[in-house]
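Session log. Operator J.P. requested a structure for one protein chain; no other inputs attached. Running the standard single-chain path with token output.
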Amino acid sequence: MDFFEHQDRARRNSRLLIVYFSVTVVLVITSVYFALVAILALATSNSENAVQVLDWNPQLLAAVVGSVVILIATGSIYKTWMLGSGGESVAVALGGVQVSANSTVLEERILLNVVEEMALAAGTPVPPVYLLEKELGINAFAAGTTPQNAVIGITRGAIQTLTRDELQGVIAHEFSHILNGDMRLNLRLIGLLHGILIIALLGYMMIRMLIELPRRSSRSDNENKGTIGIIAALFMIGGALVAIGSIGVFFANMIKAAVSRQREFLADASAVQFTRNPSGIADALKKIGGWSKHAKLQSARATEASHMFFGNGFATLIFATHPPLETRVKRIEPRFDGQFAKTEEVSHSLSELIDPRSLSMQLASFNTSHQAALSGADQLKSNPQYAVDQIGEPGPEHIEHAHELIDQLDDRIAQGVRDPLGAVAIVYALLLAPEGETRVEQWRELEKSCDRRALAELQRVMPSVDSLAVEQRLPVVCLVLPALHQMSPPQINAFRLTVRKLIDADRKWTLFEFAVQRFITKRLVQRLSQDHGRPSPQGNVNSTKKSFQVVMSSLAYAGGKNSDPKHAFAKGLNFHALSMGSMELLPHESCTFSELNLALDGLEKIPPKTQRFLLESFAECIAADQHVTLDETEMFRVISDALGCPMPPIIAIRNMA
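Structure written below.
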């Protein structure tokens, strides 16, 4: 399956999840109804009245249906809203603490480097990494609703026992969940099932309150005797809720197992394809089998998130959310004998900071990231669908390209991207205009907005930032995101305002400035908003048509003075029959970055197959003048990212030795 087929599969699984959930709700309603009938019959002293209670009672059923549906819906909606901010809330709930982007602890630095390489290779933002310090089992997870708000979580046991290659295999597995749409399904699963589990929690609360009630009562003995029957009935109701809640737990585990097991096989296979190193993930799985703690999790909140983890965190084999370890290893290494050697802690070395495998890779036709990017632009020109075919399908050549991009960074930038102050200064430096009146105006604004430390850091990194190549600028913005993520909400808001003022200084926007603005808005500012969990509205045909028209027209005008916008627009439009009716190139003044931003938001929620058609049309538009610049390739990646389709760096595929 390609990326878009994976997305369709995730949508089908989401619909299947709703079916499972609905069936479970019906079973719970049925159980509650008959439990109440039985309790009322037992509480009725008169046998004739008891028989009447056992008769069909539509009023009672209606009350049960209304109460149970409201209770389950409230629990599910509340939990889903709580998880709407993305993976950060999940990581914190599980006891995770964000690993500082400039950590100097060797095993943490190795982990962060691996995550950076994987993110740049996959074309996603570099996600924050959370360490589950108290968890000594070997495990990891990816959580979030989109690649923009994803986080990676990993246990202390994993970084103590896994080598760099094994960490890379595990992280590649988690990135496959990010790319394949599994994360959103995982969070929906937690949210929906919480509504079912809340029935058992309500039963436990009721029983605890009833136990405490007699101690607190100040009534006379006679009055207390009169309430014994009511208390007994409430005890029975509480016990019934616990029992029914247990049924809900049973079916919740069934649902998690049904949805999760096959996805783990797919993620393992994707990790092998991504890294082209089967032993990395296979050896990590073997170490789980040989480690005294296995993949076990101690957090009380881990049960509801068990389906999200790399390994099975619980001893139960009934409705396990993961296939057996031996089966997973044999899928990768068919000759595996099923024996797990004893796992010991590893001693990391400084050599693991850089992927040792990349040092032995030989380049077929070029030896710098700049040449690779230029060759990728030529490839896009001759085969416009080339980049679209790579969406969600990164390979080892993209990891190598990420290595080169990072390795070629000046030390001042390499250090600055991992420190919040340095990250802020680097973004400001990226937005400074060339020498002239605009830069003078920008400096005045910075002197008003920034403290002395930020200005000093800006002056320090500015020469290095000015010398960055085109293909390095967007990856550098991706690299600073984890450090910026460590800022407080007031700092993020102040940073956003300064960024906007720097962009507006010359009264016009460049493609790169537009990309920076979207990255900051989608990755940082959006998580502070109160409506972070609210999905974007599903666009109708007319709004989709208008959004498509704006994006296509903007790309047609981006070709430069020597291109023909009308020809480019027509070339992209004719590539696919999109069933949107006729449309024409918009006037240039209608293609502002503000309109483009709104248009991309409007296309974000369209079906995956339509996304592919749109992106292929955009690629044809870009290549229409037979001249593709690096700016255009990076803009194409920004558009793809805005549609939720992570595009790896556009490079010519290399022949690895």
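Operator note: Residues 359-366, 530-541 have pLDDT under 50 and may be disordered.
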